């Protein structure tokens, strides 16, 4: 398949899938139960994931308009596992800022501190509407 | 939970078997995963599934089993062991460009020194629907210097390197 027909194939499928969803993208935070992680995403774009440690990953826009606008989200991995292990609330509405505090307490390392305070927290401060994520009751 | 039922899936994708790359198996992407991406208007992620994952997974160069990070799922505190990561360096990326309503997908040259990673979860009951597992997540990660087509820190990320191959 040539590249142009490949793009046309993808466009046709996207138009069909999104036909009933005429809304703009909005930043969101969601719990991915299958991979036990909280995904915070503020832009619909191609991203590169940068692993900070076993609990935190930073998302960078692969083709940003401005270099300073490259951070577009983060992932808190093993979120429910972490909450259960540390005897934190693991179901219902959870404040992301509080989980970030706990991650800093569990991993008091300079690199983690920079990623939490210079990347993750500013994302939440710029998008305060996504500071709370709902964790469903565990199976 | 019966994750093996084929009617749970939006699309099936061929992939090299985690056990032996010379054998082909099928993974499904759950309707639930696609509907969540649609609900959050993640057109670029869906375009990547259609343009990178679906045609490209069969060309994966490495497979790893297990994530070296906490993962609680379905009552299992070691659910990381059921995840397989496929990695390779695709020739194209796909993104949604322009207006959310009147934009269009576009093929892009992938970011330099990155690889594509697809995470799948193997299902326990493989007798139903000929589905080996479910595709759960995909994204770009910087490439390792010591293993072409694999992500950086692959030894820290994954439990077991199942196989590697050249094509």
Q: What would you say about this model in short?
A:
By secondary structure, chain A is an alpha+beta fold.
Describe the overall structure.
- The complex is a heterodimer of chains A (139) and B (167).
- By secondary structure, chain A is α+β, with helices and mostly antiparallel strands.
- Chain A has one domain (25-135).
- Helices cover 36% and strands 26% of the residues of chain A.
- In chain A, α3 (96-106) packs antiparallel against α4 (110-126).
- Chain A is globular and about 50 Å long.
- Chain A starts with a helix and ends with a strand.
- By secondary structure, chain B is of the alpha+beta class.
- A seven-stranded mixed β-sheet of chain B has the order 1-2-8-7-4-3-9.
- In chain B, β5 and β6 (104-108) form a beta hairpin.
- The longest helix of chain B is centred in the first third of the chain and has 14 residues, at 43-56.
- The mean pLDDT of chain B is 92.
- At the A-B interface, α1, β1, β3 and α2 of A face α1, α2, β5, β6 and β7 of B.
- β3 (47-51) of chain A pairs parallel with β8 of chain B.
Distance between the first and last residues' Cα of chain B: 37 Å
Could you tell me the strand content of chain B as a percent range? Answer: 35-45%
Total DSSP E strands of chain A = 7
Q: How are strands sequenced across the largest beta sheet of chain A?
A: 1-2-5-4-3
Percent in helix of chain B: 10-25%
Shape by Cα distribution of chain B: globular
Explain the layout of strands and helices.
The complex is a heterodimer of chains A (139) and B (167).
Chain A: H1 3-17, E1 28-32, E2 37-41, E3 47-51, E4 56-61, E5 71-77, H2 79-85, E6 92-95, H3 96-106, H4 110-126, E7 132-135
Antiparallel strand pairs in A: 1-2, 2-5, 3-4, 4-5, 6-7
Helix pairs in contact in A: 3-4
Chain B: E1 9-16, E2 24-30, H1 31-39, H2 43-56, E3 62-67, E4 83-88, E5 93-97, E6 104-108, E7 114-122, E8 133-142, H3 154-157, E9 158-164
Parallel strand pairs in B: 2-8
Antiparallel strand pairs in B: 1-2, 3-4, 3-9, 4-7, 5-6, 7-8
């Amino acid at each position: 398949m040539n590249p142009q027909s490949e793009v046309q194939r993808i466009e046709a499928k996207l138009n069909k899938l999104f036909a009933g969803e005429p809304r703009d993208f909005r930043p969101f935070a969601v719990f991915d139960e299958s991979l036990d992680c909280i995904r915070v995403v503020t832009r619909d774009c191609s991203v590169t994931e940068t692993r900070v440690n076993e609990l935190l990953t930073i998302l960078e826009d692969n083709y940003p308009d401005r270099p300073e606008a490259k951070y577009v989200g983060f992932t808190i991995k093993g979120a429910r596992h972490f909450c259960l292990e540390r005897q934190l609330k693991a179901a219902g509405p959870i404040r992301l800022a509080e989980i970030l505090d706990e991650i800093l307490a569990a991993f008091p390392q300079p690199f983690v501190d920079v990623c939490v305070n210079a990347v993750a927290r500013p994302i939440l401060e710029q998008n305060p509407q996504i500071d709370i994520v709902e964790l469903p009751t565990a199976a | 939970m019966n994750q093996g039922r084929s009617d749970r899936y939006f699309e099936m994708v061929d992939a090299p078997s985690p056990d032996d790359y010379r054998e082909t198996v099928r993974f499904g992407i759950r309707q639930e995963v696609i509907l969540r991406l649609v609900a959050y208007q993640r057109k670029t992620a869906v375009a990547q599934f259609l343009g990178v994952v679906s045609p490209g997974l069969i060309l994966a160069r490495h497979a790893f089993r297990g994530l070296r990070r906490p993962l609680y799922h379905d009552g299992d505190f070691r659910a990381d062991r059921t995840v397989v990561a496929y990695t390779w360096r695709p020739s194209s990326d796909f993104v949604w460009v322009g207006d959310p309503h009147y934009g269009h997908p576009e093929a892009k040259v992938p970011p330099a020194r990155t690889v594509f990673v697809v995470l799948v979860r193997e299902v326990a009951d493989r007798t139903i629907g000929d589905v080996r597992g479910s595709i759960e997540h995909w994204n770009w990660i910087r490439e390792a210097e010591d293993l072409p087509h694999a992500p950086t820190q692959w030894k820290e990320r994954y439990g077991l390197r199942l196989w590697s191959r050249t094509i």
